[in-house]
Design a protein that fits this description.
Layout (H helix, E strand, L loop, with lengths): L5 H4 L2 H14 L16 H5 L8 H6 L12 H5 L9 E6 L5 E4 H7 L3 E8 L4 E11 H5 L10 E6 L19 E5 H5 L4 E6 L2 E2 L9 E3 L12 E7 L6 H5 L23 E4 L9 E2 L7 H4 L13
Parallel strand pairs: 1-10, 4-11
Antiparallel strand pairs: 1-2, 3-4, 4-7, 5-6, 5-10, 7-8, 7-9, 11-12
Bound molecules: ligand MTE.
The site of ligand MTE has 17 residues, from loops.
Length: about 300
Amino acid sequence: MKKFKYSEITPESIYKKRRFFIKSMGLGFGSLSLSTLPFVNNSIANTNQNKVTSFKDITTYNNYYEFGTGKSDPYIRSQNFKTKPWSIKIEGEVEKPLEISMEEILSLFPSEERILKLRCVEGWSMIIPWNGFSLNQLLSKVSLTSKAKFVEFESIYDPSQMSGQKFPVLNWPYKEGLRIDEAMHSLTTVVTGLYNQKLPNQNGAPLRIFIPWKYGFKSAKAIVKIRLVEKMPTSSWMWASPKEYGFYSNVNPNVDHPRWSQATERIIGNDIFAPRIKTEMFNGYGDQVANLYTGMDLKKYY
Ligand code: MTE
């Protein structure tokens, strides 16, 4: 496996923070590879995708249709978006419905750094040093009923602040969903920050979900409601175009999107002549999540 200098693959803030950790393990900087970082999947460490994406790329090349459909629209138009006060309702098939403020969330669930890869259905990817915690920690507060088979996430609806919602591009508010075992998987992350900073508005502040083995659109931003339900919910993208967007949307190089091959991907931040890399099944997290889909025909359940 190719080795990378630690200073080459990590931003300075993390680099400094980890010095102590590295020293205490008795390792030299030169011997560290991405695979030694938390949550990084083997596929990242073993391919030529060896750099954490820059803060600039992560925060200026976004999909967030509430603020427009252009990649730079979210950065340009979301800066005044109000994220305080903010609370999240957890309701539906639960014994103890809950409304919890952002402050309570931050104090109850300490965030850790999770360097995870985002693979967009449009065929590009980034490696993002998120800060967050597992969704299952939050869901443990509400006691699920036996009918809680799926989870639905709902993003904020506020056309006065989000000009994109004045147009019927999607069925607002943005909705996404997971099967309950997917939601309970520890890789399913509640994101509250990135690069050890408060989550930028354009990336889904104050809180978004991130599911690294699924296409990026499953990871809804600016969440205000989490509803436990018995029946599979219809996500905004399924509603818009059911033939293109299935409920599962696991990253799968063998199942193409009608308009895009999913076999390869472009690494955001590489120069334009850099070759595309092969897309990995489950975005490289198969060793951790493939067992959720044993016996399922993933061509049918795309
Ligand atoms: N969440 C909301 N509410 N609205 C959106 O338009 N876009 C999705 C997802 N979450 C989207 C959303 C898509 S298509 C992708 S690829 C990711 O957010 C992009 O996340 P990023 O901008 O933080 O990279």
